[in-house]
Amino acid sequence: MKYKQLTENERYMLSALRKQGLSVPQIANALGRHRTTIWREVKRNSCWSIDGAYRPPIAQRRIRVRRRKSRSGIKLTESDFILVRVLLGYEWSPEQISGFLKRHGHKCVSHESIYQYIWRDKAAGGELWQCLRQSLKRRRKRYKAYDSRGRLADKRHISERPKPVEDRQEIGHWEIDTVIGHGTKDCIVTLVERATGYLLIGKLPDRTTASLNKATIRLIKNSPLPIKTITADNGTEFHQYKEIEKRAKVLFYFATPHHSWERGSNENANGLIRQYLPKRTSMKEVTQQQCEAIERRLNSRPRKRFGFKTPWEMKNDYA
């Protein structure tokens, strides 16, 4: 098996999971990586000379330094970045652009070279840097407390999901969540298919169970892919899930409270949506048409885990 280094996002997730007390095998399972990869990352990039702690910014900086030292000396010209500039305009990440170019036989431009090009452009007064996604926000510490969310009778725990759902072996198994705006009760509901990454977005006037159910049932009926199961968190907006099960013929499962990695596809998709709807943005004026435009953008963006195919292509492969 060919070894692939962790991405920057994975390093931040690794650090967060270590702080929660998870073991290396548990972290490896949450990230979909081999445990040896996690051991190697921690051993190689922890601050052993200080306190032995693992710090993602320092680890990422060390990786970039090592890559610069090992560069093959390939010279890139301005013409090599013409397509890069176009794809940045579509809010693709440097890694997605690099993978796309490689997949389609274009001249290989590493994501690190694209980042350096962006920073040089910014220093010269350019605006390419504005196409990059927001950096990860610092997370507040979570303290142990009684969790009263999701105390529903008869709900199915995520551990009861069939093995094909866990292994993403078939289509039709989705994850659901709501994304809230600032200053109003308006929000959106997102559905992500686990095997293809295909995304659906619906506008909600509020986070009530009635609004959530109505929008979710509409999305299910209009979905181009089958919807057999849905995995949710323990938010109160999902308390009337049995109505959706009855009307849409699906099964609901619920993740463990505060275990966001159990719904990794949805967490990742919500992070991508925040590029278009930042946290301080009011969603009062957001329309369903705008939600569908964001859908199209993200469903046509290549993903590393699919060999830089898009969710749209993955959907068609299963059709």
TrEMBL record:
Alphabetized UniProt keyword annotations: DNA recombination, DNA-binding, Transposition
Integrase catalytic domain mapped to chain residues: 158-319
Source domain of life: Bacteria
The keyword Flavoprotein appears for this protein: no
InterPro entries the record matches: Integrase_cat-core, IS30-like_HTH, RNaseH-like_sf, RNaseH_sf, Transposase-Integrase, Transposase_IS30-like, Transposase_IS30_CS
Transmembrane segments: none
Family statement drawn from the similarity comment of this UniProt entry: Belongs to the transposase IS30 family.
Role, per record: Required for the transposition of the insertion element.
Protein name as catalogued: IS30 family transposase
Taxonomic lineage from the root: Bacteria, Pseudomonadati, Pseudomonadota, Gammaproteobacteria, Alteromonadales
